[in-house]
Automatic annotation (TrEMBL):
It holds the Pfam family 2OG-FeII_Oxy. Keywords: Iron, Metal-binding. GO terms for molecular function: metal ion binding. PANTHER family: OXOGLUTARATE/IRON-DEPENDENT DIOXYGENASE. This is Fe2OG dioxygenase domain-containing protein. Residues 44-118 form the Fe2OG dioxygenase domain. Gene3D superfamilies: B-lactam Antibiotic, Isopenicillin N Synthase, Chain. PROSITE patterns: FE2OG_OXY (PS51471). It comes from the Eukaryota.
Length: 118
């Protein structure tokens, strides 16, 4: 197995462990049994996308991912440099997310939005 493949497999395994831990905490926070979320998401397929944005002095020339919502349960984003650009839409306004290098940003996807609404 190549070094890249081993690294990606290890990263995928660790992020799966992190996601399952987060599902457990979220279930407990809303008074549900952790198995309720773990049972839904534990064996679901996972995707991995690597998007690298190098520093660019001309921000009007930068092309990123188009505005979207995440249809999954959780999205884990790893900030790997000082290039900022992630935004969230809240109350109809786009707000920048200022994430420190090495931080994981956790987005709750559409799949969890419905069951947790009041």
């Amino acid at each position: 197995m190549s070094g890249n493949r081993q690294s990606i497999d290890a990263y995928s395994s660790e992020t799966k462990s992190l996601a399952l831990c987060l599902f457990e905490f979220m279930a407990k926070a809303v008074g549900a049994k952790p198995e309720s979320l773990l049972g839904i998401f534990e064996e679901q397929p996972r995707g991995l996308r690597m998007t690298y944005y190098p520093p660019c002095l001309q921000s009007d020339k930068v092309m990123g991912i188009s505005p979207h919502s995440d249809v999954v349960g959780l999205t884990l984003l790893l900030q790997v440099n000082d290039v900022q650009g992630l935004q969230i839409k809240k109350d109809g306004k786009w707000l920048s997310v200022d994430a420190p290098n090495g931080a994981f940003i956790v987005n709750i996807g559409d799949t969890l939005e419905v069951p947790t609404e009041n």
